[in-house]
Specification:
Number of strands: 7
Distance between the termini: 29 Å
Largest sheet: 7 strands, mixed
Structural class: alpha/beta
Low-confidence stretches: none
Shape: globular
Strand order of the largest sheet: 3-2-1-4-5-7-6
Strand content: 25-35%
Helix content: 25-40%
């Protein structure tokens, strides 16, 4: 949860009134961070009320201020389901997903990059113009195509290693802002 807090503190994408999709939301830490920031409970008078939609392959315990659905975001029609649940497009698509580890570093890197690319294509389908995509990636050489893809679709693309991420971890995050539609 600290990682998304640090990323949002720097890039300010979880704003009151934002409609947020959290892909691979289990166990729910990122959703919990987003609830007060987007005013999902509507408990901050004078600020727009946001909406948080969490989706995951596995069942997730309910989280106050979030709507959670068990869904494979890569299945046909998943983007349409998400837009229906949101009542329109999303302002933010965020993902802290990681593929199951095989123990082989290069294989694991390729798997997480493929998952991140799938999340990016999903974001292209559900994001509103000006929206933000945030995703975990692993350093390892194959992320170049993903960077190229994101730079074509977003105004700015930043690669960030938040302070909460262990220094010995190959984990980093991509924050793409200003979706061009």
């Amino acid at each position: 949860a600290y990682k998304i807090m640090e990323l949002d503190d720097k890039y300010r994408f979880l704003v009151p009134g934002a409609r947020v999709v959290d892909l691979g939301c289990a166990p729910g830490g990122w959703c919990q961070v987003a609830v007060p920031r987007v005013n999902a409970l509507g408990d901050t008078p004078g600020k727009a009320r946001g909406f948080i939609l969490g989706v995951d392959l596995q069942e997730v315990e309910p989280i106050a201020g979030c709507e959670i659905h068990q869904l494979d975001f890569m299945e046909d029609g998943a983007d349409e389901k998400v837009k229906a649940w949101l009542g329109g497009g999303a302002d933010v698509v965020m993902s802290d997903m990681a593929a199951a580890s095989s123990g082989h570093k290069q294989t694991d890197h390729l798997r997480i990059i493929a998952l991140c690319e799938a999340a990016a294509y999903f974001a292209f389908d559900v994001l509103e113009e000006g929206g933000t995509f945030v995703s975990k990636v692993l350093q390892g050489g194959a992320e170049g195509e993903l960077q190229k893809l994101l730079k074509q679709r977003f105004e700015k693309v930043a690669n960030v290693k938040p302070p909460a991420s262990r220094s010995d971890s190959s984990e980093k995050f991509v924050v793409a802002t200003g979706f061009r539609g």
